[in-house]
Hints:
The chain is mainly α.
Amino acid sequence: MTMGQSSNKHPTAAFLEAQFHDLVATPDSEILAGTTEDEARAFGLALVRSAKAAVAKRKFAAAKAALARGAEAGGAAKPVLVSVAEARAFIAAAANDVRFTLAARELDEMSDEDILRLYATMQQVLADAKGESEK
């Protein structure tokens, strides 16, 4: 879309687009005037680190809120009370279930912990699907 076209853009979109095109057209030497390459790189890396830290904080806050919602809704996740053999049998049967896509590898190659973790995940998917269908 060009700047002359009418659309439902945010009021500052045209301004930002013009600034972007101006920046792209500006030679690197003019942008970096008075700054060494190492200083520019250090500044850029500091910006990236700061952005990553901000994202991590937001993700942590979202996870914390989701955990709190889960605790309010029904308490902590229930532990899986099934034997490894039963979990392996369930997973083997689920390999033919269209609701699940399993990697092509032998169940015998998976550790007991991996089997129980996969079983718990599959049970959660089934429980979530059941809850959605009841709404």
